[in-house]
Queue: 4 jobs
Job 1
Amino acid sequence: MTVRLYVPRDAAALALGADRVAKAFSREAEARGLDITIVRNGSRGMHWLEPLVEVETAEGRIAYGPVRPSDVPGLLDAGLLDGKAHPLCLGGTEEIPFLKNQTRLTFARCGVIDPVSLEDYKTHGGLRGLEKAIAMAPADIVKEVTDSGLRGRGGAGFPTGIKWKTVLDAPGDQKYIVCNADEGDSGTFADRMIMEGDPFVLIEGMAIAGLATGATKGYVYTRSEYPHAVAVMNEAVAIARAAGMLGPSVLGSGRAFDMEIRVGAGAYVCGEETALLNSLEGKRGIVRAKPPLPALQGFLGRPTVVNNVISLASVPIVMDKGAAYYRDFGMGRSRGTIPIQIAGNVQHGGLYETAFGLTLGEIVDTIGGGTASGRPVRAVQVGGPLGAYFPRALFDTPFDYEAFAAKDGLIGHAGITVFDDTVDMLKQARFAMEFCAVESCGKCTPCRIGSTRGVETADKIARGIEPEKNRELLADLCNTMKFGSLCALGGFTPYPVMSAMTHFPEDFSPAPMVEAAE
Ligand SMILES: Cc1cc2nc3c(=O)[nH]c(=O)nc-3n(C[C@H](O)[C@H](O)[C@H](O)COP(=O)(O)O)c2cc1C
Ligand code: SF4
């Protein structure tokens, strides 16, 4: 009987040699006359163990990692195909604490199934949400999503159901669903992982959004830096269309929904929804003033839902298990689960899906295992490049939209980047301003000019030039950018800058530079 081996095709695993490992297994199996089937699955999200190879045994799936091509003969000698012991053996995959302690709702199938097998998808609970939605009136689908408490996972945390209701109620014979898969935040990869590991869940979520709002066409807008995600999504869309999951009559419902994948060149601002819509229309990716809201006048001026990948990919489970099931997880107004992406100088980097409410300290110290360098954690940036830096003193903050906002921080797309005690926070503040200057679309003055002045001011502080006056100037500049910018690129850059100044003031008082004697 053929033995099923799983070797991820996820970009993170590929970067660590997964293709070469898969080739080594097929070469070795052929030479030894072994009957194996290699499934190229998504990643389980434990990046320090990639490439993570799994074998299906009578006792369930057994994991080995990180596997290098040169390990393959030894692994086969040791009896990997029977799940036998080896120094790289990690035991039952589901028993690895990092995975076992998660609550995987959105990522339930990621790393488990063959991403481009609709059969596998169905066997693992796929399509149930869409089937339920087909039997419901659009307003009832919208109500279910609203009642679940699902909020946008792209950054702003806006309630998904309310956005959908605006589009449902908007007049117009053509409406659109646009999935924001730009994922520009450094240190984030949840969107990419789900597209590469479980593309049908996103397709299903978009189809449900279409049925709920009356939109018949959808686009996934992603970036050229995600070639593997683009390939998997294109393949999955073609399979879904051939199987009648997409097209003029979704699953025979008589209601139409179809979709395409569009690839941008990769600009941070093109993740902002209105700049994204411009880019999708073939225009330059600059921010549009709001109003009008995209929900009323979005893609080509038509009512458009713009939602993040994870928001849309969470809808099938909401529809399948019901709003009450989903909203039962979480705390306060942050309902359900959130895929936290742990990156930077950390021992156990990867994706950890859990109900809202864990403290930052639990995430960094217990789940992440502290720094990879072994030095003390000094700062953690939460929410991508526009997120605040939190010191250890704020490690009791629970992962919740409101709790982070109350401490002048944000959750954003739930990426966290860990830094040890060698980090220079003045340099990080300068970097935030520089990032904004480079990525600014240029439409408004506080962001376009302010960010460049910010870099200059940080440089003056670093050189010890009138430090007190320049610290005040930097704070004043942040205030102008925060309240005067048209979008959150200029408006949120002050978060990393001000948090660095507030929590790490010692880094903003460097010793005055001694001018070289003539
Ligand atoms: C500069 C900037 C970049 C953004 N980048 C992204 C992104 O890469 N992905 C994303 O989903 N949202 C991004 N957003 C947020 C979007 O504008 C928008 O709020 C989101 O796509 C709405 O979807 P959601 O309600 O499902 O979160 C960005 C916003 C700004 C201001
Ligand atoms: S804040 Fe920056 S990115 Fe946003 S509209 Fe203004 S110039 Fe463009």
Job 2
Amino acid sequence: MSLTASTKPAPTDADLLQARYGAAAAPAAAGKLNDVLRNLLAHRTVRAYLPDALPAGTLETLLAAAQSAPSSSNLQLWSVIAVEEPGRKARLSQVAGVQPHIEQAPLFLVWLADLSRADRVAAARGRTMEGCAYLESFVVAAIDAGLAAQNAAAAAESMGLGTCYVGALRNDPERVAAELGLPPRAMALFGMCVGREDPARASDIKPRLPQPLVAFRERYAAPQAEVELVAKYDETLSAFSRSHGMGDVNWTSRLFARMGSVKGLNGRDRMRAMMQALGFELR
Ligand SMILES: Cc1cc2nc3c(=O)[nH]c(=O)nc-3n(C[C@H](O)[C@H](O)[C@H](O)COP(=O)(O)O)c2cc1C
């Protein structure tokens, strides 16, 4: 079922759940949805944008939503850079293996794990921030940045905008750092296109793994029928891919392509060394 913006009338709760899981795997016991839940369930990545500028104040609203996310100990070890300059977006698109939506979208947000502010606070007091040298601090910063970014994405979607995360910036973190003038111990984790979707190339809700494959009660318990459930999900995702002109891609093939060999990491097998070059000791 297609649930793009042009679909009339508005999708029912059952439509949304079926689109999210495929008809056979939609959780029958799910409760009634409210507007926030309907927005979350209707999420879809947008990779085709109109050139329209964003309404005044959009960036500030997205930032307020991002900063409303919880933050570990309220340390707020993240920053974001709003990129609108066409040349800069083009260069960042090159790093990301040329993703045209980066140049199309009027706004490209780059989300940073940022320990540099903590370093500056310490330096201003003639001290050092010893904890910044540890892997744990990077993990805290990356979690905080992810939560903030997803708040911004959900906010954008609630405003009728589309988003596309761009993890491919990690193909070359040093080049991104140079482009954005990042200080030591700040790293771009991912970018995010924000803009109005081109209705002529609207995307659709992509089905997810069924709940029994990802969620357990009380203790970890991979289902006995894991292989069969994965096979069914592969069929659902293949059908989705075919009907959206994306070939016969399923979850298992994507998993192997990305994680089945070091080659699939696209050069990111050198992440530790690349991060160390950016000042993250990762002790
Ligand atoms: C951290 C992260 C990085 C991603 N990087 C890219 C990317 O570089 N290019 C892209 O087109 N999509 C990217 N995506 C979008 C995913 O491909 C997309 O979320 C996934 O296929 C599920 O589709 P959906 O968001 O439409 O439900 C990324 C998503 C996340 C969360």
Job 3
Amino acid sequence: MPEPPLRIAVIGGGIGGLTTAVALRQAGFEVDVYEQALELTEVGGGINMAPNATRVLRTLGLGAGLDREGVRPLGTHQRRWQDGRTLQRAPLNPQCEELYGAPHMTIHRAALLAVIASAFQADRVHLDHRLVGLADKGDSTEVWFENGAHIMVDVLVGADGIHSTVRTALFGEEEPAFAGCVAYRGLVPAERISGLGLELGSQSWVGPGGHFVHYFVSRGRLLNFVGWTEHDRWNREDWTDRATVARALAAFEDWHKQIRTIIAAAETCFIWALFDRDPLPRWSVGRTTLLGDACHPMYPFMGQGAAMAIEDGAALAACLRAIRNPADALLHYERLRQPRVTRLQQMSRANKTRFHLPDGPGQAARDAEWADVGDRSPDALRWLYEFDPAAVTPILA
Ligand SMILES: Cc1cc2nc3c(=O)[nH]c(=O)nc-3n(C[C@H](O)[C@H](O)[C@H](O)COP(=O)(O)OP(=O)(O)OC[C@H]3O[C@@H](n4cnc5c(N)ncnc54)[C@H](O)[C@@H]3O)c2cc1C
């Protein structure tokens, strides 16, 4: 008699958790998602989905939703903070589709989450369920929620973000560290900045102690911006409550007119503090594992945090399908994923320094290096973009 499918609980209904739920369901498992919030939401405006992520989402049948909601930027344009000089350009579309079989996209976060959620049974997403405890029972795991509910499952997946309770339950308390950066984030209706004549693409402005990124979302109707500045300390009272357009303008006071025009066209903006953790040596204990920001948060300076969570979901589903013993499958999954996400964590950290160099010889050397390389083909990131996370390759000792 065939064995019944594994019952799997995914904790967290963010981009990582929902993608994983879709991938696990399509692999034949019985899956439920438990989310603490009263509705599925995403904080912030836009997000980049590089071809490694859009390919996974397309494989899960989400291509039409992405095409409906997303934008295919023509390229990225790296510019100098004050004089606007071009430091480097990189074409993205249609080259990414030709090279990697999937486009690079920019999309509103809420729209992305809705597209992913549309592929999963709504009555198996349990809102208002905040995990507060778990106990390993050998062949199953018991889970408790703040609302008094409790469940028994065969496999538990913690996709509950950087402040993960599942991670704390497995590996102990360890506060994430403030990364020394805050972001001013906002959305601007495209018609308000039509005078800038922006092409449908991304621009990234690098300057002393900060950088500023903007790209279109919502089929080009909105321009999303994120302006990063460095600070020694963070406290919520000083920042979140005083997030105003005027304050964002003051933070980018001497920067190029285009940046100031974009900020000034926003009705509101909010401030986001960046937190970080060091790479975690283990992700799994028995039949419980982690994914996404719960186990490998990264600075967003490679635009790959959510992409890695999406890849994790595809890899986890493939490992659980290929390897009969769930605990062995989770171990294989974590070993497959760790080298790749650690590399991206390190590259993202290095980009903070590289993007924020003060005016002077270091910055001039960086700019000269970019100029020497010339326009960057998306082929330069082949190792990143063509990767298939669902390939359950053997682990080399
Ligand atoms: C400014 C900025 C820009 C970025 N840009 C990009 C980009 O361009 N491209 C990219 O790929 N990545 C980007 N990232 C990174 C990306 O946003 C994150 O890596 C990604 O959203 C993490 O997804 P996740 O599902 O792992 O976690 P989260 O999105 O944090 O989701 C966790 C979910 O778990 C829920 N939860 C938490 N605790 C519990 C509990 N105890 N019980 C039940 N539910 C719980 C939460 O409510 C939430 O819904 C950016 C990040 C920032 C800050």
Job 4
Amino acid sequence: MPELPEVETVARDLQRWVAGATIRTAIVRWERTIRHPQPPERFVAEIAGATVRRVSRRAKTVLLHLEDGRVMTVALRMTGALIVTDAGTPADPYARVVFELADGRELRYRDVRKFGRIGLWPGGGLRSVGAGRGARSRRVAESGRRYRIGEVFSGHGPEPLQRSFTAERLAERLSRRSAKLKTLLLDQSFIAGVGNIYADEALWRARLHPLRGADTLDARDVRRLHRSIRQVLREGIANRGSSISDYVGVDGQPGRNAERLAVYQRTEQPCFRCGRPIRRIVVGQRSTHFCPRCQPEPVASAAP
Ligand SMILES: [Zn+2]
């Protein structure tokens, strides 16, 4: 599943390839891909003629900012991809939505497993998000009201690569939680954009066991975790993402980060630091990879 580095790579590529392009029309081949507005015919009517001003990312979602202030969101979820093709490129049976651009190219939303969602929203309020309340964003999806783009992301936590995401801020957020580190890193209301791959990588780099309770970290642990989260995400972006399953960039090419991962899907292979075999456990139904030597098991707290 694409995480922050993969989605950031897609957004940066799209910025180069489609900023300034006008969408002539959209063809929706799988109606459930369209989240908002409903019905999909209305989405098609509203997107026709829109010009893309710039492309960015929030959490694991690509944002296409339109000239008139509206924002189109593309959540890639499991297998979604955005691919720009030249005129005359053969049709793709997995393209669920095709945006025909005025210059003859196509922006194709390709999604084998069909979990991804596309929405079109009124602009506004995006700067004020980050309060981190989970339930509200889910309600937005189901309600009929026209939510502004900022409200769509109101349930998401801070962006880990933003300057405002400091070690002090992370420490403050961790200290109020007793959840296990792995569970917390995957919680989008705690921190946005981190998924299974980069959570495991960040914890290995920080030498923290995935089952450590968040409120058991001392100041040095937190600084190491903060640095590690940002490092693994930045390296992922520099390598154009980790292509574990279907992820490809806008050019249709896989990223180069998968072969650089230290623990993720390296079960029984030697740890790059100490040589011990990497172990796999399941935490909250998610595969979790760690080094039993570099990431010591949490000490059981003394009985009261
Ligand atoms: Zn090790």
